[in-house]
Amino acid sequence: MAGSRLYRHGVLEAEGFPLHDAAGYLRQPDAVVWLDLCGPSQEELTALAEELGLHELAVEDALHPHERPKLHEYDTHCFLSAYAVRLDERTGRLATAELAAFLTERALVTVRPDDSFDVDALTRRWDGAAHLAKSGVAFLAHGLLDAVVDSHFEAVQALDEQIEALEDAVFADHPDHRAVQRRALDLRKSLVTLRRVVLPMREVVNALMRRDRSVVDETMFPYYQDVYDHVMRATEWTESLREMVATIRETQLNIQGNRLNLIMKKVTGWAAIIAVPTAITGFYGQNVPYPGSGEPWGFWVSSAAIVVLSAGLYALFKRRDWL
């Protein structure tokens, strides 16, 4: 077990106690308990489920990884599944930290498959809002959701900065197209992953705020409303960034096409200029008599024609911006 806390009348009374003490605390009507299990075995979670009356389907979801973010309601508790995220700014890849939680009347049980979720940051968040602890499980669940949603918001903000840098790289004088393409694909994958974990959070937070569930009291309702607002902003921001990445990719392809057309235009212009001396020297290279054949003035006439016609074509193409 990674962590535990006991609140009584909104005051933190104990923490770091063993799992088997939680059952005794929960028999006291004024106690609110948080239990955190990191990588628990099926036997450990099943024993806790029997003690707290957790549904077997919820226990199964907590033990199986890669569940969709969701909130399921059972007779005695709610089951919550969510993901915190973190962006590696060097690679542009998004790392996820899976988290499951059981919300009973006076207990919050968090289950983590590994230690990728920062529990210390969660407890600091609770300590920073200790004046709300009288709301019990609603207070604990708010801190948990706020930490998760804040990670989404930080990730989408970091992705926005990465995409702005990608735009600058696309319009650079000498862009590395392979690096830009690889970066765009990495950011697109991260946005797909972020969208997959952010969008369902609207339903999760909205469901907790429903009056008929009686999970959120009047004191905590504005704070949940604030979390819901952050979820909506992160969702809209994620959608706009996905469109921006697609637009950047299309812009990169258009720029590459335009540069290729410009190169082909210049190559064609130079080919036309080179064709003039080729044509004249080819004409004078015929094995038949022609004006100036075998005479010095014939050489000078052909040379003058090459210079004049080539210079004329160069001036014409330059004026029309073909070179």
UniProtKB/TrEMBL annotation:
The keyword Transmembrane helix applies. It comes from the Bacteria. GO terms for cellular component: plasma membrane. Keywords: Cell membrane, Membrane, Transmembrane, Transmembrane helix, Transport. Signal peptide: none annotated. SUPFAM superfamilies: CorA soluble domain-like, Magnesium transport protein CorA, transmembrane region. GO terms for molecular function: cobalt ion binding; cobalt ion transmembrane transporter activity; magnesium ion binding; magnesium ion transmembrane transporter activity. This is Magnesium transporter. Belongs to the CorA metal ion transporter (MIT) (TC 1.A.35) family. It is found in: Cell membrane. CDD domains: TmCorA-like (cd12822). The chain crosses the membrane at residues 267-285, 297-317. The keyword Transmembrane helix applies. It is a multi-pass membrane protein. It comes from Saccharothrix variisporea. InterPro entries: CorA_cytoplasmic_dom, CorA_TM1_TM2, MgTranspt_CorA/ZnTranspt_ZntB.
